[in-house]
Task: structure prediction
Amino acid sequence: MEEILKSLNLNSQNNGAWGAEEIPASSERNLTVHSPIDGKELGSVLCASNADYDVIVEQARKTFYEWRQLPAPRRGQIIREIGNQLRSKKQALGKLVTLEVGKVLAEGEGEIQEAIDIADFAVGLSRQLYGKTMHSERPAHRMYEQWHPLGVVGVITAFNFPAAVWAWNSMIAAVCGDVVVWKPSEKAPLTALAINKICRDVAASHGFPGLFSLVISDGPELGQRMAADQRLPLISATGSCRMGRSVGETVAKRLGRSLLELGGNNAMIILKDADLKLAVPSIVFGAVGTAGQRCTTTRRLIVEKGIEKELLSSLASAYKQLRIGNPLEQGVLVGPLIDKAAVLMYTNALDEIKKQGGEIVCGGEIVKGMPSDLYVKPTIVKAKKSMPIVKEEIFAPILYVITVEGLDEAIEVHNSVPQGLSSSIFTTSLQSAERFLSATGSDCGIANVNIGTSGAEIGGAFGGEKDTGGGRESGSDSWRQYMRRQTNTINWSNALPLAQGIKFDYSSS
Ligand code: NAD
Result:
């Protein structure tokens, strides 16, 4: 463990305030990080104070005035170097993610791969920040739009993707000409420190040490301060719906922009004609991957009547084969939950499920004899669509199975929750698949056919509707959110015609 930390320039005691310069953190609050794997202390971080934050934002603003003048393709060259640095540190960073948040090693490394992929995407994007040209209704006039950088972007991230979500935002924001101030989760500050240091060093070698700043605190206060800060035109916040409501409201009050990536309650519809050989492994990966702590985790299985018995028995036998244990070990597929509060959420939810008439098919308990008390059994519950708890996001591996009569009822149940992130259908019917993807089908930001709800690629725009917040990050045209649009009209004639044919000739009146 010590070797990993050392190779990533981390110490047992770290500073939590990094702007264009390292600011000795002055809050006098110390955040100690324990691995959920075995409870061992990984290190600690001295938290940034409000005053440190203010200095860092001022430095970031100064960097922005310079950075925005660098042509976008040259900004892209710097992001290319960052991608290469991340590539060379992928194993160490992936292991740190595993140590700090407990996801299995393949997923820890997968997260760093996502950061590398989005860096590659951003390099190409740096030559494609296109604006449209329109035909003016006035003779000898040219009309077009162009995109300019916004300024200092505040990025608030959740514990469960401690590296990738920051990279989705920051690689794109940087090629757009913005600079970034990051407030990571208090549950994953070491990954943030390591990744920020790598990216910051590359930026500093090109004269832009303030391109990526970092403020670490032991709670939400600095995030709240960012949300209220007029100097930050955009706040991109990833986390629970509760957090998103608070950030969204605060940013809206000052007429700023927010990009919200919040909780999900994702479902898969399994129709009678589905290929269960595809469906079963997708369900298991979706429901159990990252121990049910992904925003896109499959939480509800909506099954057409007639196949529920066969499906449940295949799932129960797949669940029996899952190895729960130390996520650093080969072959382990389920690691620990992040902390005691998460375990309590799991056990409380199970009590409530039973009260509301749910039937536990398998799992439903804490695993004994593990190196920490944070390991829980992935759980399958036979549930009714009327159970109120089914509408909540319980951030643990609990899968509800709900039986329905057919596609119409499946879509109605599917859309009956407040969240709207990811969704999928398993069917071999073209009609059913298209119906699910149509305007009368899934109401989510992501809708898949014969693929599960989790494991999105960076090339698409990622995000969800309703209580999930409406934001879109990562690929496609998500970059537009990090820029401001300007419409330009140029008159190259010797006359001054007005739009809509309006005459305003004061000399003849
Ligand atoms: P959380 O809401 O507890 O915390 C997320 C971040 O917000 C942390 O950095 C925290 O300090 C900060 N924060 C909390 N309250 C705040 C406030 N009032 N103002 C400003 N900042 C505040 O979430 P978590 O437990 O770290 O992560 C799990 C949640 O994140 C789940 O709901 C999950 O679905 C969601 N998530 C969503 C996505 C997505 O892309 N939609 C991705 C990952 C996680």
